Amino acid sequence: MENLNNFQLLEYAAWGISALLGLWMLTDMIRTNRAHSEETLLSSKEGEIEDSLVIDPPHQGGHL
Q1: The whole model's pTM is what?
Q2: 12-21, 28-37, 39-48, 54-63: which has the minimum mean pLDDT?
Q3: Buried/exposed 24-53: b ≥16 CB within 10 Å, e otherwise
Q4: HEC string of the chain?
Q5: What is the pLDDT of residues 21-37, one digit of tens each?
Q6: Which of 44, 18, 42, 17 is nearest to 32 (CA)?
């Protein structure tokens, strides 16, 4: 370990950061699952696209 060059130090730092991010995501997932019900977590308002919100009307329904 005493003959580490800068690239090896960066590699170890990157692995350490990725491990910390993984632990943070895991704890956030656990906290979110405890704070909200399954019904709330599985509901999606983005999936309900209304026809009035279509930006390019000529492409709606195949009309030219």
Answers
A1: 0.56
A2: 54-63
A3: eeeeeeeeeeeeeeeeeeeeeeeeeeeeee
A4: CCCCCHHHHHHHHHHHHHHHHHHHHHHHHHHHHHHCCHHHHHCCCCCCCCHHHCCCHHHHHHCC
A5: 999 999 999 999 999 88
A6: 42
